[in-house]
Specification:
about 210 residues, alpha+beta, Spore Coat Polysaccharide Biosynthesis Protein SpsA, Chain A, five-stranded mixed sheet, five-stranded antiparallel sheet, globular, disordered C terminus
């Protein structure tokens, strides 16, 4: 039903920590076909995170297990506005050109008819079809979700979707994953998260 030239697909439990996120999305879609806030430059399974370090890209702010705190999850951090060479994106936030979405035939809702797998399938199909993917490195969003709180039912659905992706793309996946880890920083508020997020990177990544 959307009418615009740029389509955004995102979870309903997010908020933006950095300013002007849509302007940054538009900026990156001048050069790329699909963008997001977390992903990988390798895909070794149905889970983008399995690629490990140093192939993961992006950061997300999430709830912490410590009351009143937040967890800044840093999957990969660079000194430019984007990570390029991306092959798959997390579905918490994906933006693309309408023409790219239509060229790919949209999401595979028949195979991935739940909350899992659709994102990897769609973005990896885009990569395989020649679309240029990236992770927008200067957008930080807050996601009101943490894997530690997932129910067993949700984990089972996630595993089934990953298996479907593996079966569909087994001959196109990368091998030799890196170290399956990322860095977490416990922060007390969003301002502290922003300071940690920007860190010592170049001035064009400053919050102002």
């Amino acid at each position: 039903m959307a009418k615009g030239d740029i389509l955004i697909f995102c979870h309903d439990d997010i908020d933006f920590v950095t300013k002007e996120p849509i302007a940054k999305v538009i900026r990156d879609l001048n050069y790329y076909d699909i963008t997001g806030v977390a992903g990988t430059e390798r895909l070794v399974s149905g889970n983008w995170y399995d690629a490990g370090q140093p192939y993961l890209q992006g950061s997300i702010l999430a709830p912490s297990s410590v009351p009143g705190k937040f967890e800044l999850q840093v999957f990969g951090q660079g000194r430019s506005k984007v990570f390029n060479g991306t092959k798959a994106l997390d579905g918490v936030f994906i933006a693309c050109r309408r023409e790219t979405f239509e060229m790919l035939g949209g999401f595979d809702a028949e195979t991935f008819n739940s909350w899992h797998g659709y994102d990897i399938d769609f973005t990896f199909r885009g990569y395989l079809a020649g679309a240029k993917l990236c992770v927008t490195a200067d957008i930080l969003l807050y996601h009101e979700s943490h894997p530690a709180t997932f129910s067993q039912e949700k984990l089972n659905e996630f595993a089934a979707a990953q298996a479907s992706i593996f079966n569909k793309f087994s001959d196109r996946l990368d091998t030799e994953p890196g170290v399956r880890t990322h860095t977490n920083f416990e922060v007390g508020n969003w301002d502290e998260a922003l300071k940690r997020f920007y860190g010592n990177r170049n001035k064009f990544l400053s919050p102002s």
